[in-house]
Amino acid sequence: MKSSLLPSTSRRAALTLALAAVGPLLPGATPAPGEGLRAPFGLSWNAPSIELEMALVGANGRIITRKREAGEGETWIVEGLPQLALQRAKFHLRKDRLDGVELEYGKADWTAANYDGFMKSVRARIEEKHGAGAQVARRQDTERGVMQTLVGYRWTVVGGTIELVYFAAQNPMNLFRTISLHYTAAPPEEELSPAPAAAAEMVGAK
User: For residue 75, which of 57, 52, 93, 56 has the smallest C-alpha distance?
Assistant: First the structure.
């Protein structure tokens, strides 16, 4: 539906919350219980961009845009990957190496029950591998006539973080829903500061 319903700050808050594995595209990508974070689609963290592009094209993915980011970063928006209800994927690169993936799920004919069932099944699969996650967001409010619902969970695992988010925005004329699943790899050891890293600012739970 119309994404114009989403104020930019709200959409950013929703889409920076999440990550995890919902049925990898390629074999061998599902981690065993207790195993650290693995990249989706059988990819490897820190893979060079040329290797990433070859893998995506080989899986019928279409790179729609390539956007340069601050700090030697780049984001690729990819469509066409054959996974249930996957609308698009975002691949984040730093210094030409893969370090994050965002997956956005939803279907035009899905009801609220469909989204709820999908969210529960994804959460259950993550918990089976990594244990219970922390709820980092749960709110419902209205902004400029748009009712917004945000629910998010986070798992801190060996090698990175997994986050899962449901976001909905509705006014009398339009409805937008999405489930976002994000993987974020931990930075290479040589880039870690000896001082403890500051906690990332998250959307506060009520």
Answer: 93
What pTM does this model have?
0.73
Angle at 123 between CA 137 and CA 20, to 5 degrees: 85
* Cβ pair 17, 137 in contact under 8 A: yes
Amino acid at 37: L
Residue type, 163: E
Helix-strand-coil split of the chain, %, nearest 5: 20, 40, 40
* Total residues found in the chain within this entry: 206
Residue 156's Cβ-side half-sphere holds a number of Cα atoms within 13 Å equal to 5
pLDDT tens-digit readout, 91-144: 999 999 999 999 999 999 999 999 999 999 999 999 998 999 999 999 998 888
**Contact by Cβ (8 Å): 185, 91:** no
